[in-house]
Amino acid sequence: MKKTIKLFGLLLLLVLFTANIQAQVKSDYDKSVDFSKIKTYAFAGWEKDSDKILNDFDKKRIKDALQNEFSSRGLNYVKSGGDVDITLYIVVSEKTSTTAYTTYTGGMGYYGGRRGWGMGYGGVGMGSASTSYSESDYLEGTFVVNMFDKNTKKLLWEGVITSVVKDKPKKREKSIPKNIKKLMKEYPVKPIK
After folding, report:
1. d(Cα 169, Cα 175) in Å, to the nearest integer?
2. Phi, psi of 184 (to 5 degrees)
3. How do residues 22-46 score in pLDDT, each as one tens digit?
4. CATH at 81
5. Domain count within the chain
6. Are 46 and 54 contacting, i.e. CB atoms less than 8 angstroms apart?
7. 189 lies in a domain?
8. By CB neighbour count within 10 A (0-12 exposed, 13-18 middle, 19+ buried), where does 165 fall?
9. In terms of residue numbers, what domain contains 86?
10. How far is Cα 64 from Cα 62, in angstroms, rounded to an integer?
11. CA angle 86, 92, 93 (to 5 degrees)
């Protein structure tokens, strides 16, 4: 019983921790549009100068990852005059995560799994429990890709990904393309094989 409680607590912590670090993706698109007919795109810039919080390396990583993903779907990048315009937006906010860990100590009383009274852990009786909390600060980034029809300026597709921002450049070098790939899985056209 004691091992089951510990295992359950460990699994619960693992699920809660990994849920926080996974990128969350949302998207929506105009279902009346045949996305397979879109062949060229141009970057129309960063909305509201949101790129000011990024360094040049991360801007290039984002743009390269998007170009790679669009290219794999048969879209070609042009400097201007594409079938669609792509705008980008990013916001970073400070977050705090809180974790709790409860420690049970034994005492006299009934303990589960066996019948009787005696020394045990956490059962009904004179045992005690203490819970400790810890907080950690981190940065969470939300990245939005909007695709507009060049002529009508109508929104055709929007992809949004929210993820923890990695502090180290080496980690961002890997996480940015990985997250863009995850985001582009929501695009209405799958990669060409």
Report:
1. 10
2. -70, -10
3. 789 999 999 999 999 999 999 999 9
4. 3.30.160
5. 1
6. no
7. no
8. middle
9. 2-184
10. 6
11. 145
